[in-house]
Write a sequence for this structure.
């Protein structure tokens, strides 16, 4: 993606206060920070400065209430790109609270070289700062019945996907992929232990059009199952979309590289969010 185009994508989310912090971190006159809205390529370069991470997550950090969650997440993704680019391995979650080194950092570095994929990760995290929930109605043998749903409940969200009109399904499938990536990336211990009940795996596989016995998936650990389903839901979203926008093109890329995206989010959640007490996300459940 052209740097100016990518910069405009970031600017859609950055507040005026974000731009003032961005300008100040580079030694610019913060009073002229608004001029950065006309310089998207420069914004992209400034977001990559290491000094910005220290300002947001370091000892002399900016009060997080002053900046947008999106800005904090963009800074974290940029820092992950620098750290992973220099690291021989990343930590892989092998079991709850257990990690093993995995030597596939070249793949993760490649994922993070594309500004559009970095933007995707920051937008994904931002979208879960406020989780949507509510009710929908479904027809049963006994008439219409009210059902609750939450964006962090993949089972109910998958049921909802089958109830909505076909025109809305790409969006719901995209959100199912988002939920799978968010849970396995930011809350892997929860995903491993609590995200799926005894019958949920089979229900999710049926909702994704898979046989419960397909490739032995029903017996795989929850994180691996959610990875597989997340890939499939992102792919279905891209395949069913009437128009492939730039955003949906990135969704299609992530469908093929879901594990890379998940490992990057593991790195970010483990190394950066704990520094500031993770004020954005409550524990699922």
């Amino acid at each position: 993606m052209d740097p100016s185009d990518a910069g405009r994508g970031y600017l859609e989310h950055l507040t005026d206060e974000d731009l003032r912090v961005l300008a100040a971190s580079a030694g610019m006159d913060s009073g002229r920070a608004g001029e950065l809205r006309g310089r998207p390529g420069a914004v992209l370069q400034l977001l990559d400065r290491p000094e910005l991470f220290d300002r947001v997550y370091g000892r002399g950090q900016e009060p997080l209430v002053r900046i947008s969650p999106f800005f904090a997440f963009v800074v974290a993704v940029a820092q992950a790109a620098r750290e992973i680019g220099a690291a021989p391995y990343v930590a892989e979650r092998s079991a709850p609270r257990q990690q093993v080194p995995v030597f596939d950092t070249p793949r993760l570095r490649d994922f993070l070289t594309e500004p559009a994929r970095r933007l995707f990760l920051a937008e994904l995290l931002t979208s879960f700062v406020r989780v949507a929930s509510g009710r929908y109605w479904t027809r049963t043998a006994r008439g219409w019945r009210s059902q609750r749903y939450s964006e962090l409940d993949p089972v109910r969200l998958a049921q909802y996907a089958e109830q909505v009109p076909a025109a809305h399904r790409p969006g719901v499938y995209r959100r199912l992929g988002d939920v799978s990536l968010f849970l396995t990336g930011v809350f892997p211990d929860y995903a491993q232990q609590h995200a799926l009940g005894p019958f949920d795996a089979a229900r999710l596989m049926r909702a994704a059009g898979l046989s419960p016995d397909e490739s032995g998936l029903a017996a795989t650990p929850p994180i691996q199952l959610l990875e597989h389903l997340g890939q499939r839901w992102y792919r279905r979203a891209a395949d069913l979309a009437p128009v492939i926008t730039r955003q949906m093109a990135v969704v299609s890329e992530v469908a093929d590289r879901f594990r890379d995206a998940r490992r990057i989010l593991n790195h970010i959640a483990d190394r950066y969010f704990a520094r500031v007490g993770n004020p954005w996300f409550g524990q699922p459940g």
Q: What stands out?
A: Residues 222-240 form the longest helix (19 residues). The CA atoms of residues 194 and 285 lie 8 Å apart. The mean pLDDT is 86. DSSP finds 14 helices and four strands in the chain.
